[in-house]
Design goal:
three-stranded mixed β-sheet; 32% helix; five-stranded mixed β-sheet; alpha/beta; 5 helices; 19% strand; 8 strands
Length: 173
């Protein structure tokens, strides 16, 4: 059986990766493995923006794909962007194997608020499932509670569930 692989990009706390691994394994009902060594994100750093280009990181993830890979999710603490947006929470190949999610803007501390580990964990899971949904050929959903709804601000993530709505679930089953 193919596996969902998680790849740390840069320094990602092991407890965060372990928790996400267990959640995704249960949710997608597939074996889930952590890959090592971590990918060095510096190759995608753009000093003029002080951010990391997510598409460049996804391209660097390709060598980590092997015969056992169902999907490969990169997890980073770096602030991501694509040229047409100020920032992104993640990015994925529609219908492909590769996706990336950033924890950078999911933490309350980024917004000057006190740490909330439970809210952070829920946001991370929601965005990870969202990006993996894109690899399953799902596009953005009009149901604002569906995990596949667009997230242009962190508050929009908080409205979503970490699961697919009935219509999106039907497309992947």
């Amino acid at each position: 059986m193919k596996e969902l692989h998680l790849l740390p990009i840069g320094n990602v706390p092991p407890d965060v990766l372990g928790w996400l691994q267990r959640q995704l394994c249960e949710l997608f009902r597939v074996p889930c493995a952590l890959l090592q060594p971590a990918l060095d994100p510096r190759v995608a750093y753009h000093p003029e923006r002080q951010q990391y280009h997510s598409s460049e990181l996804i391209a660097r993830m390709q060598p980590y794909v092997n015969d056992q890979t169902w999907k490969l999710l990169g997890v980073t603490g770096e602030d991501l962007y694509i040229p047409i947006l100020t920032f992104v929470f993640g990015e994925a190949q529609i219908g492909g194997k590769l996706a990336i999610v950033s924890t950078h803007r999911l933490r309350q501390e980024f917004y000057g608020l006190p740490e909330d580990k439970q809210l952070f964990a829920q946001r991370l899971l929601t965005e990870a499932v969202h990006e993996l949904g894109h690899t399953l050929e799902l596009t953005h959903c009009e149901d604002y509670q569906c995990v596949m709804a667009a997230s242009h601000a962190v508050e929009w993530i908080d409205i979503k569930e970490a699961t697919f709505c009935r219509e999106c679930a039907a497309k992947v089953i």
